[in-house]
Amino acid sequence: MTINQLKYVLALNKHKNFTTAAEKSLVSQPSLSTQIQKLEKELNTKIFDRSKKPIKTTELGEKLVKQFQIIVSESLKVKDLINYQKNKIVGNLNIGISSTLESTILPLFIDKLFVKFPDLNIKFVVNKSELLYNSLKNNELDFVIGLTPLNDNDLTIKPLYYEPILIVTTENIKKTNSTEIELSDIDTNRVLAPNKENEFRSLIENIFPSCNYNEKFENNSLETLVNLSLTGNGITLIPYLNYLNLREQEKTKVYKFKIPEPSREISIVCKRNTLKKHIIEEVFFLIKSSMKKIKSFTDVKIIKSKN
To answer: Which tens digit of pLDDT belongs to each residue from 224-263?
Structure first.
């Protein structure tokens, strides 16, 4: 039994396809298949049912996979432990970032990150926060830049920023002379919301629970929905960091909610027992310092995304 064999099993269990598992493992498909067969022969048990399409992990195989995840995770900690004791910032760093944050957060710090840590092999994975947290627990990621709060005692959460949600519309929806808008001022039937697969959609649903939205335009692009609102085709909610990327003329069509403003919490999330804590701390402070030039908000109401 080798660590590589266990990694191949984990890859096949994840992708349910030999070709894809081999590509992700950077080996040939015959090599991956042969190594898994050798392991099954050594253990005298079938880990996968190859008669099923897609390939199915057997009942005993599911239990073995969980144990293999622990073994592979612990094996990876050996180098991390050595680097941790020597306070070295080297090796691989796999970072997950929410797909709703990639275009606004990443440009703020990515250049500084590569300059500050030239000896780190940094890889970014973009997905929904919920899926990234699952990958974090499976030791596929070292930390996640995602949306919180979370209820998970195995994870450490370090808030980076509280980001208000704003309103884009050409309509006069203010009921008073105030520059702030009440939630009750919004006709949700006019709200353009992204598709349900979009992480930002779940946040909108928590701001306006049990409401109907304008489903005339089915689109997953926040940029497209904002442009539709700017041409008078509805109301769009937009995170503050996305608002900063608008042109000055477009910003005149953006309003804020009455305080405490509905906001999302952006955090760095890692496992409590990570041996890369010293690296993650350094990255946290780098990102935090990169965001100092952006207006901060404290009088907010954190809206949790539905999982």
So the answer is: 999 999 988 889 999 999 999 999 999 988 989 888 999 9
163-263: in CATH 3.30.70.1560: no
Instruction: Please answer whether residues 152 and 169 qualify as being in contact, where contact means their C-beta atoms are separated by less than 8 angstroms.
Output: no
Nearest to 185 by CA among 170, 173, 193: 173
User: DSSP assignment, residue 305?
Assistant: P
pTM for the full predicted model: 0.73
Beta strands (DSSP E) in 132-220 are 143-148, 155-168, 180-181
Assign 85 a pLDDT band (cuts: 50, 70, 90). low
Closest CA to 11 of 32, 28, 34, 37: 32
Annotation: CATH topology of 3-82: Arc Repressor Mutant, subunit A (1.10.10)
3-state secondary structure of 260: coil
User: Would you state the pLDDT for residue 164?
Assistant: 95
Q: How many CB atoms lie within 10 A of CB 222?
A: 20
What is the rounded average pLDDT of the residues 106-125?
90
DSSP helix/strand/coil, 78: helix
Say how far apart CA 57 and CA 118 lie, in whole Å. Answer: 40
Q: Which CATH class for the 87-161+264-298 domain?
A: alpha beta
CA angle 68, 70, 72 (to 5 degrees): 65
The DSSP bridge partners found for residue 214 are 192
